Structures are given as structure tokens and as C-alpha cells.
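Hi Prof. W.,

I finally got the HAD family hydrolase prediction working! I wasn't sure whether to trim anything, so I left the full sequence exactly as given:
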Amino acid sequence: MPQLKALLFDVDGTLADTERDGHRPAFNKAFREAGLDWDWTVELYADLLTVTGGKERICYFLEKYLPGFAPEEGMAEFAARMHKRKTHFYLQMLQAGEIPLRTGVARLLNEARTAGLRLGIATTTTPENVTYLLKATLGGASVGWFDCIAAGDIVPAKKPAPDIYLYAMDMMGLKAEECLAFEDSENGIRSSLAANLKTVVTVNDYTRGHDFSRAVLVLDQFGEPGMPFTVLSGDADAYTCVTVPLLQQLFIQNSLSGQPD
Ligand code: XBP
Ligand code: MG
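And this is what came out:
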């Protein structure tokens, strides 16, 4: 009988709704500080999110929307310099407690730990962004709840490549058949599926229309007792929020039916 051993979480959009009111304004602050009048609006950012990684996103923006822009220092150096300042502003927001966890995340992490499930992170964002988010929302000790925080440039290819999930599983000594992944976006689930991981999705406003046809379950949120999730696709039985028994049930059903192949 297959046994669920670990939960592997994406961060941006999954643990917290970080993009619209977190990363996006932090990029804008960095541009303004540098004397640039670029404004990444909520609408424009939907397109920019098709590229994962902040430095990669800056380069994509320049190539597509400002093709004449040629910084003296070179594109990669310019993007890295802007991104460093963007990270500074983003960390300030985290430290100020401006970015909460999504509904049900803290409860689920606690329940998973109590049940003896191992926890890991697989994200394209910068490592400090993860540790600051965890410390600000769950306390300093929470960083140690995760056996591996796989983040950012530690792998050569970011999502949708499978590299970050493969790296996390390698570090944790786990096989894909022993884990469930949690994602919120198409780039994210392409990455987890390419790493052969059964994947649960919680959507957000930027990702509601993405293709999640190969997810084991798609929800609007993890939910809480008294604050039920809405099932967008898949079968959550009689459950109304994501709990360890629901995850174990999904894991066994989908292991037997050979998901995600
Ligand atoms: C998240 C990202 C990140 C963040 C910004 O994607 O693509 O780039 O938007 O963080 P996912 P950085 O949730 O699929 O991991 O600026 O630190 O890259
Ligand atoms: Mg995400």
C-alpha cells in the first residue's frame, strides 16, 4: 500500500497571496527608487507572471514592452541590481506583517506535523523571501518545520521545469510516489507534474483560468472549519477543508489510479 510521507509546498500564491500586493509593488518601488517611471499595473502583471523568477520577469518585461532599453551595464546586471532592491522592499513588507498566509495554511501545516508528515518547500522565489514569510506569520521556529527549503537560483532552470521539486525530493531522500505537491499556477503544476508529483491546487485571482486538468483536486482555498472551500474540480468527498485524512484519501486514490501519468 503506498504511504504518504511528505507535503511539498509552493510559496507564492499557495502559502500566501504574495504577487498582486507584495512582489508587484516591491518591483515598482525599486523602479521608482532608480528614477524609472515604469508602473507594473495589476493587469500588466498578469502577463508578466507568465515568466517565473523576478530577474527573469524584469528581462521579459524589457524585451516585450521596452525593446529599445539597453542599460550600459548589460541586461542581466541591470535586472540583478533592480531585483536586489525589489527583494529589500519585499522583505520590508514581510517584516511589517503586511502579507498574511492564505486561509487554512497554518492549520494544515500544524496538522501535518502532528500527523508525522514531513514538510518541504519548492519555489522559484528568493530564499530569504520564504524564511521571512514563515518567521513573520508562524514564528521563528517554523523555518525548522521544513526539512528542505528549495528556492530561487539553487537550480539552473526555474518552474515550469521540474528541477526545484527534484532537488527538494533529492535533499529529503524522498521519491515522488511518497509525496503530494501544492501549487497555485500553471507554471507550478507543470513543474510538479514533470517531477511526477500528484498535485493539489488552490487557485487565486491571477490563476483561476489556468489549465489544472491534471491536478488531483482544484480548490479556491484550503479552507477552515466554518469557512469551507469550493471544489473547482476533482472529488473532495464530504470534506469542507483540507485536512490530513483528505490528503491521505486523495493520495491513495490517485496512487492506485496511476496519477499523474
Ligand atoms: C513565483 C515566482 C517568483 C515571484 C517573485 O512563482 O515566479 O518569481 O513572483 O519572487 P512560483 P522573486 O509560485 O511558481 O514559485 O522576485 O524572488 O523571484
Ligand atoms: Mg506559485
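Residues 10, 12-14, 184-185, 188 surround magnesium ion (ligand 2) (CB under 6 Å). Does that look reasonable to you?

Thanks,
D.
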